[in-house]
């Protein structure tokens, strides 16, 4: 079946490959949700000299005003207007008389579909058609129109200010082959745009809500990460080391490749530095690495590495990708899109996400965080990579707060401060390491001018699950 | 005073064109697309000028102008194309082209020139 692109790769993925030729699609949503922009983007993406796009307006927006509003968008091509994309006003034909109004409009649309063989026909807003057809006749009339237009293989798009409840009650939704619902939802002071494909006959769609933005490039959809995880995952038997001798020894040479590992600990204990060490070890082996940071910029990450003894100055994006995503108004699926894009640009063996706290904040009011993190790790795993997540604890060291997320991670390393004989030291405990032998003790480490140095297992301490580690009484 | 037919599928645009021409003292007739315009030309007293849109349902501006030019009875009527489509003037044999949004004074000056030239 021929598919038409929407002009956005993300939305095409959500639709299972684009819009099926000959389909009747309804784009529904409240005013300001982006319906008209999406419909026009689809028109300009598909209009050619051989198969144009026809955009019918009813009582939505005068054409010259519409042009002015479209001009800032990159997809808009003024030279195509009147040549490959026709803007026609349908309201006069529709009028207000029943049922002649609908018949005149239908005749015009069918004439266009047969004469010009357009790839796309849009009616914006289709709600005007309700005024000229008896309610009980509307379903038959739309069904008849869509059936005839389908002969030309044109996608017929009805754009309308439908409330969510109307998608279940209005007859055109029963006839439609596809329904794309757009929303602009206020979450406190932040507005979130999302869409949902309620149905698309003959297509394997990505279900649920997908975030989108409207920018100068037009409509940009970020498919919900959980729906995009590849099903095929390669089996890996090797390990990804940290390049830190004592640590690697106690974890059997490194993290099993493909695993998701959580580094958890209080502020300043060295989580990011350990993650940087993981990247540095990969770079030394010639592996491509991706470091996602929400707080520190690329320069800051590189500086941190330099301070710890790793010179990354000559390493470019072909081997090291550092993406700083500011945490302000962070969207989970935009982060997912960044990760997917970088993974698609070439094999990435090591990924660091620093940190979970920003993702948790972005996921507020939803219960999707566990599945999202699992999906993020799943993407990296499917590409043959290994993921490190960091997460900060509120307390300095009394207990480990995983917020019920530990089941998502294959491995959990707890970095902590330990007070030993009035001195504050650092230690690492392995709380969990799936399918691996590992040391259950506390491994001391220090951060000094030489970077991160892991030492020996600390013997003879008790109370390690509390704040103070006490030296046990030595045998006399 | 001249008799002018304005052709546009948007009623708001027809209103603006009507205002522009009526304020200049002309008599204005309206049609909402090319098909309606052809019917109007046939049924109306002789016209001095036609101002038409390009993109319209049923019969578009290019087809309307071509059909008017083919008919000896209407071939000499001056035609101004008023369109949002920048390349449309190259696809018709209109006598003048104005891009939307148009300048009413410039439009009237152009209309007067074309009408005077024909007379």
Textual characterization of the structure:
The complex is a heterodimer of chains A (476) and B (119). The mean pLDDT of chain A is 89. Chain A contains 14 helices and 24 strands. By secondary structure, chain A is α/β, with parallel strands linked by helices. In chain A, strand 6, helix 6 and strand 7 form a beta-alpha-beta unit. In chain A, helix 12 runs parallel beside helix 14. Chain A has helices at residues 9-14, 35-46, 63-70, 91-94, 100-115, 135-150, 166-169, 171-175, 245-250, 271-284, 298-307, 332-344, 356-362, 369-382; strands spanning 3-4, 19-20, 24-28, 53-57, 85-89, 120-124, 155-160, 178-187, 190-200, 210-215, 218-222, 239-240, 255-256, 260-265, 289-293, 320-324, 350-354, 386-392, 411-420, 423-433, 442-448, 451-458, 461-462, 470-471. Chain B is an alpha/beta fold and 119 residues long. In chain B, 40% of the residues lie in helices and 19% in strands. Chain B is built from 4 helices and 5 strands, in the order βαβαβαββα. A 5-stranded parallel beta sheet of chain B has the order 2-1-3-4-5. In chain B, helix 2 runs parallel beside helix 3 (61-70). The longest helix of chain B has 15 residues, at 104-118. The model of chain B has no long low-confidence stretch (mean pLDDT 93). The chains are: A alpha/beta (476), B alpha/beta (119). Chains A and B meet through helix 3, strand 5, helix 4 and helix 5 of A and helix 1 of B.
